[in-house]
Amino acid sequence: MRRLALIALFLTLLPPAALAVTPDEALKDPALEARARTISRELRCMVCQNQSIDDSEAPLAHDLRVLVRDRLMKGDDNRQVLDFIVARYGEFVLLKPRFELRTLALWGLPPAALLAGVIGLIVALRRRRTAATEPAPLSAAERQRLATLVEPGAD
């Protein structure tokens, strides 16, 4: 019974299969369909925002998938299709922003933060190591207390 409950729990946690692309959208040419799916995975659903249009069932995502396929049927290459969609909807429609001067902070800050963290960790470990190897000298009161503790016959 436990095993069955564990299997049921595991199955509920699995993500559902992406059934967003309907058969009537799919192109007859497998090569064009593969290109359309590749492009669709790069475009953000403007309704869901955290899903690609390939995974989203929103009506706008459906319209964008159809638009991508129409552009491919007209002979556009992948870059031209993406440029066309970006021109209509803006850079936000791309799930992975392009590497440009205005997106430099977006691409550069995560590695810079990681580097700063590593440098900070190295500095902290070095300080800790030097503090552990060089004990602070005893004050006069501490030396006096130590002397009374070490003397034989002291209480």
In whole angstroms, how far apart are the ends? 68 Å
Q: Based on Cα principal axes, name the global outline.
A: elongated
**Helix/strand/pairing category:** mainly alpha
**Rg, alpha carbons:** 31 Å
State the helix count.
Answer: 6
Number of DSSP E strands: 0
CATH architecture of the largest domain: Orthogonal Bundle
The H-and-E topology, N to C, reads as HHHHHH
Number of structural units classed as domains: 2
- For CATH, the homologous superfamily of the largest domain is named as Cytochrome C biogenesis protein
The CATH topology of the largest domain is: Helicase, Ruva Protein, domain 3
Describe it.
This protein has two domains: 11-98, Cytochrome C biogenesis protein (Helicase, Ruva Protein, domain 3, Orthogonal Bundle), CATH 1.10.8; 102-150. It is 60% helix and 0% strand. It contains six helices and no strands. It has helices spanning 2-13, 30-42, 59-73, 78-89, 104-133, 140-150. It is elongated. The mean pLDDT is 83.
Keywords:
single chain, 155 residues, mainly alpha, Helicase, Ruva Protein, domain 3, 6 helices, 60% helix, elongated
Write the layout of secondary structure elements.
Blueprint: H1 2-13, H2 30-42, H3 59-73, H4 78-89, H5 104-133, H6 140-150
Helix pairs in contact: 2-3, 3-4
